[in-house]
């Protein structure tokens, strides 16, 4: 749980409610000083050979592996993410930084064919000072990707981690900064006001943000005044469409994984499920059985760990969606009740009887809730999945090549997953659409976002 006093941000363990620590938020003056230091360091870092920049990032990634267990424990303490999941996130972060250390030196421009005696070049250059504002749900992996890509392409960085895990964010950033020249990576603590001061700063050239739609919208407006390039991954309302020709138990396992992993607090969590009527009954029965396997830590053999939500304020949001759906006629098959005791736990929940107008169908819940709408067939499920302003990701489970082809062609999202709610090749890109964001957030394409192109036309003297 995160609370703000007159001067400090207090962070509490979401499993116990115990105080983890207090952090003083950076004010506008602190932000100005951090951006100023990054500005001073900008030219020297940009002129550092790309291979040397990459070598320092690679060294930092190796050090990150050495403290992975420590960071995973701190992640669990501040956000409730189960230790094994958090450890995987830290190791993925190290791998991402190593990947960008390899890709950075070979990120290149191109030449253009013009007249015989002239040369035209398109040269990538760093944008300058990058503001990197990261979330609490996968804090190390997200920060590592954005910061790693920014650094290897010659940008300096001011990083603001989420106020819900400030100790983890600072530990990570200070570790990476210890391998870099002074001013190349700065860190500021704080909540919304700090983020606003940073993203709207006149000397920031790029803002990369992963977080809420409201914050992303404010960043777009601020950047319109400063001219900063904006890279956003914001909220999603990711659908899962279940065809009538798949095994309902397997489909239920996929739905549970997509809905309950990290307590449903994943950017690409399954948020709404459309199941063909022909298999709806066995699917719902199997999904309720799967929900019973996701239990509060620690879990026994055959069970899966379901940590607490990040804080009680977020739990109120999640339960509010569930309670409103039930009041409007939804049926609870599992969970749906706020448990007694300390912490911010919420049970794995299964609902049916959803309608398109319900809040839980239209908005991101971001909790361990699997809301199921029974539809006549795949075509109806796909049509309703498409009817949404978000555009992050979607999943379809089908044995039909025709249905799979139609789905990935028509779904207006950045990523479509066929017959698997998670996965994807290392280095894969993602480009959200609609209210879910703009720009590439992963993959080699992220290096393009972190750079701007200068065209040079070079002709000889007459």
Automatic annotation (TrEMBL):
<dbReference type="InterPro" id="IPR015590">
    <property type="entry name" value="Aldehyde_DH_dom"/>
</dbReference>
<dbReference type="GO" id="GO:0016491">
    <property type="term" value="F:oxidoreductase activity"/>
</dbReference>
<feature type="domain" description="Aldehyde dehydrogenase">
    <location>
        <begin position="6"/>
        <end position="456"/>
    </location>
</feature>
<dbReference type="InterPro" id="IPR016162">
    <property type="entry name" value="Ald_DH_N"/>
</dbReference>
<dbReference type="InterPro" id="IPR016163">
    <property type="entry name" value="Ald_DH_C"/>
</dbReference>
<keyword id="KW-0560">Oxidoreductase</keyword>
<dbReference type="Pfam" id="PF00171">
    <property type="entry name" value="Aldedh"/>
</dbReference>
<dbReference type="InterPro" id="IPR016161">
    <property type="entry name" value="Ald_DH/histidinol_DH"/>
</dbReference>
<protein>
    <submittedName>
        <fullName>Aldehyde dehydrogenase family protein</fullName>
        <ecNumber>1.2.1.-</ecNumber>
    </submittedName>
</protein>
């Amino acid at each position: 749980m995160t609370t703000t006093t007159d001067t400090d941000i207090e962070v509490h363990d979401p499993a116990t409610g115990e105080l983890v620590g207090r952090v003083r938020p950076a004010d506008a003056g602190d932000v100005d000083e951090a951006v100023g230091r990054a500005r001073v360091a900008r030219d020297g870092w940009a002129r550092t050979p790309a291979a040397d920049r990459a070598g320092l990032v690679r060294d930092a990634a190796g050090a990150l592996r050495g403290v992975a267990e420590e960071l995973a424990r701190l992640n669990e303490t501040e956000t409730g993410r189960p230790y094994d999941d958090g450890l995987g996130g830290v190791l993925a972060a190290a791998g991402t930084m190593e990947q960008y250390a390899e890709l950075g030196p070979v990120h290149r421009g191109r030449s253009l064919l013009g007249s015989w005696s002239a040369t035209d070049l398109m040269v990538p250059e760093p944008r300058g000072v990058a503001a990197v504002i990261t979330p609490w749900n996968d804090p190390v992996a997200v920060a590592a990707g954005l910061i790693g890509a920014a650094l290897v392409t010659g940008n300096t960085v001011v990083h603001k981690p989420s106020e819900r895990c400030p100790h983890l964010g600072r530990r990570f950033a200070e570790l990476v900064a210890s391998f870099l020249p002074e001013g190349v990576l700065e860190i500021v603590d704080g909540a919304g006001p700090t983020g606003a001061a940073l993203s709207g700063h006149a000397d920031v050239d790029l803002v990369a943000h992963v977080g809420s739609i409201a914050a992303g919208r404010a960043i777009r407006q601020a950047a319109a005044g400063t001219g900063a390039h904006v890279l956003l991954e914001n909220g999603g309302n990711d659908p899962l469409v279940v065809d009538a020709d798949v095994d309902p138990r397997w489909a239920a396992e996929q739905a549970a994984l997509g809905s309950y992993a990290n307590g449903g607090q994943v950017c690409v969590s399954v948020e709404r499920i459309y199941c063909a009527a022909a298999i709806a009954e066995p699917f719902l029965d199997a999904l309720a059985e799967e929900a019973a396997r996701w239990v509060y830590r620690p879990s026994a053999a055959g069970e899966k760990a379901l940590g607490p939500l990040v804080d009680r304020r977020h739990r109120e949001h999640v339960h509010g969606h569930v309670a409103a759906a039930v009041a409007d006629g939804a049926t609870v098959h599992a969970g749906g009740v706020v448990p007694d005791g300390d912490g911010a736990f919420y049970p794995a929940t299964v609902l049916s009887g959803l309608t398109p107008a319900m809040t839980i169908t239209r908005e991101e819940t971001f909790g361990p809730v699997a809301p199921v709408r029974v539809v006549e067939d795949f075509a109806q499920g796909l049509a309703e999945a498409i009817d949404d302003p978000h555009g992050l990701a979607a999943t379809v489970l089908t044995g039909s090549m025709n249905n799979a082809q139609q789905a990935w062609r028509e779904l207006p999202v950045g990523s479509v997953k066929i017959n698997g709610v998670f996965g994807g090749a290392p280095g894969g890109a993602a480009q959200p659409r609609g209210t879910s964001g703009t720009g590439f957030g992963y993959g080699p394409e992220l290096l393009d976002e972190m750079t701007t192109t200068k065209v040079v036309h070079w002709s000889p003297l007459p």
